[in-house]
Amino acid sequence: MMTLTTFSEKQSDSQAHVYWRVGTKRGGVLDVTLDFEHSDSALIAELYAIQHLLFVELVLGREPGSGNGYRLTVSKGAIKKLALGRSDKKYVYKYSSFLQNRMAGVTIEVSQSKDFLPVLDDVPIVELAVDSRDLSCELQTISTPAMGKVKITKHAVEQYVSRLCSGKPKNPWLSLVKRLQHPKLCRSILTDKVRQHKVRKYGTTDNIEEWRHPDDEFRFLVLKNGDTRTLVTSYPRC
User: What domains sit in the chain, N to C, each tagged with a CATH number?
Assistant: First the structure.
């Protein structure tokens, strides 16, 4: 099982150091700075650091498609409770949504041990600034061969599941991502009904695209902003 170990230490209400390691020889220290203040800054910083290490730095060698086969050893018991939906820290759920969608099924262990973790004076500290807007809207970004970078919200995953005729998949996030990452995904034409609805909602359809697989009637509606697209909704069209 591939394991990422993290340990966070609060420096202030807007800053925390997050120590991390993979195995016994590879690791580092992140100096995480929030653009807001919170008494649980260490918890929030550790959650953000885990996402950064898994999905940006790819410290486990690849981008996880789900939590199966992965283990997170964390320093805050609240992280495990958040993943199980049992934490009373309701205000932190929006920062931990990736544990219930993108990393659903991950094994989480809690440890206060600092064995094999880097020593602060022995390694360079990497500064990491957190944008609260990215955290609060629960966005997750993936790379796709056809559309480039696509941002996905928890709401988009829930909509996808609710509109599947085949029933809820075992891993909703992975099911959606596999469809979005299909290399044969292509643009399709918006129907007049969809176009009129989006004009009323967004004022224009100039930045709205509909994508589909040639052999599948399931459609994905995205908002395009520069080189990045955001999944708005998905639906079957017969």
Answer: 2-136 (3.30.420), 140-236 (3.30.2310)
| In the chain, beta strands by DSSP E | 2-12, 15-22, 26-34, 70-74, 107-110, 125-130, 140-144, 148-152, 186-188, 208-212, 218-225, 228-236
CA–CA gap between residue 66 and residue 157 (Å, rounded): 14
Whole-Å CA distances, 78 to 75, 83, 93, 117: 9, 9, 10, 21
Q: What is the pTM of this model?
A: 0.77
Checking if the pLDDT of 211 tops 90, the result is yes
Residue 21 tokens, joined: 């390691």
Q: Quote the DSSP letter at residue 55.
A: I
Query: How far is residue 154's CA from residue 173's CA, in Å, rounded to a whole number?
Result: 9
